[in-house]
């Protein structure tokens, strides 16, 4: 039972590595910088890591970089992809690593004779943005695909990167006859294993760190433990196929603030929206397919509490 996890030091990947080790897998983990303890110590200290975790240096932008990490694996979990909003050069910082990086990883997969399935960490970013209205009565499902041109016009560069990467992946695996499943999570919350701050946990940190306003945005939310588990289920269940959206609840930031207030009544939280436009409406995302993987859907309130407690423990915030 040998599998590869790309971008293993990341927020979602760290939980994935932890659960894979727990389930008895041998994990070949790719990281950009194996000599940086901030990127590796939380992995090498996991139960089972001493015996069954091997680190590999690999970069999405270097051709053949993933060959040795993927060689001999039956499963490949490709999670590595930059997730930032604040970029100067979207092409170089987001699009190239996402798209070329995914093709790079899949090219290594195509060379493998042991590979059974690839699980690609995509996103609801590759699902939601197709120009169709999203309102409380609309149910989004796996048949939705974001339109890269609409996303480019809106300058949603991270969304563009995930949309183009997933699209390129489907084309590549079809041509090469590779079995691939994608996991399409919404905004991921829950405890951090890594010592560094990732973008989705930062969205919660911003609210509890003295901000005056909350964004006028509505997102789906999902717990990191459900996301990691879904990756493994999608790998292990032979009939798993296609895409799996992962959303526990869709909620506007005003609702997130309301729940945080319920959890931490003494905490100073933003009282106003960042603009005076009507709140961006909520919508629904079908749980039907993800439920077939046996996902628990840990409630949003628990995920928010876990995130805040973890941010406190890791000293990103003190109260
Ligand atoms: P992190 O930022 O914690 O992880 C991203 C990982 O990608 C890191 O390990 C990072 O490596 C790696 N990476 C970035 N650029 C490169 C590169 N050029 N070469 C090699 N590795 C690279 O974010 P998440 O865990 O949140 O994201 C993991 C995946 O999940 C991504 O594909 C993201 O798009 C997707 N996702 C995340 C969601 C969320 O809300 N968190 C929601 C939906 C999808 P390094 O540690 O060296 O920087």
From TrEMBL:
The keyword Disulfide bond does not apply. Residues 3-240 form the NAD-dependent epimerase/dehydratase domain. GO terms for molecular function: oxidoreductase activity, acting on the CH-OH group of donors, NAD or NADP as acceptor. It comes from the Eukaryota. Gene3D superfamilies: NAD(P)-binding Rossmann-like Domain. Pfam families: Epimerase (PF01370). Keywords: NADP, Oxidoreductase. This is NAD-dependent epimerase/dehydratase domain-containing protein. It comes from Rhamnella rubrinervis.
């Amino acid at each position: 039972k040998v599998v590869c996890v790309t971008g293993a030091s990341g927020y979602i990947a760290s939980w994935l590595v932890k659960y894979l080790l727990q389930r008895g897998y041998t994990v070949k983990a790719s990281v950009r910088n194996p000599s940086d303890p901030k990127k590796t110590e939380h992995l090498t200290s996991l139960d089972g890591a001493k015996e069954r975790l091997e680190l590999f240096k690999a970069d999405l932008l270097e051709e053949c970089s993933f060959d040795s990490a993927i060689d001999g694996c039956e499963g490949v979990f490709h999670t590595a992809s930059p997730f930032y909003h604040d970029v100067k050069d979207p092409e170089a910082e987001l699009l190239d690593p996402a798209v070329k990086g995914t093709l790079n990883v899949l090219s290594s997969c195509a060379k493998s004779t042991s590979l059974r399935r690839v699980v690609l960490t995509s996103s609801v970013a590759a699902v939601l943005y197709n120009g169709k209205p999203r309102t409380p009565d609309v149910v989004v499902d796996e048949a939705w695909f974001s339109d890269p041109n609409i996303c480019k016009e809106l300058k949603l560069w991270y969304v563009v990167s995930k949309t183009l990467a997933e699209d390129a992946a489907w084309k590549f695996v079809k041509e090469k006859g590779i079995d691939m499943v994608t996991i399409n999570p919404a905004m991921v919350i829950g405890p951090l294993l890594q010592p560094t701050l990732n973008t989705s946990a930062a969205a919660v940190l911003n609210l509890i760190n003295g901000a005056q306003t909350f964004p006028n945005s509505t997102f789906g939310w999902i717990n990191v433990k459900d996301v990691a588990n879904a990756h493994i289920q999608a790998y292990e269940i032979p009939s798993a196929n296609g895409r799996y959206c992962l959303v526990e609840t869709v909620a506007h930031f005003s609702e997130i603030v309301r729940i945080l207030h319920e959890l931490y009544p003494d905490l100073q939280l933003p009282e106003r929206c960042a603009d005076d436009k009507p709140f961006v409406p909520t919508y629904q995302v079908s749980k039907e397919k993800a439920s077939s993987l046996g996902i628990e859907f840990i409630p949003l309130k628990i995920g928010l509490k876990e995130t805040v407690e973890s941010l406190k423990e890791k000293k990103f915030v003190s109260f």
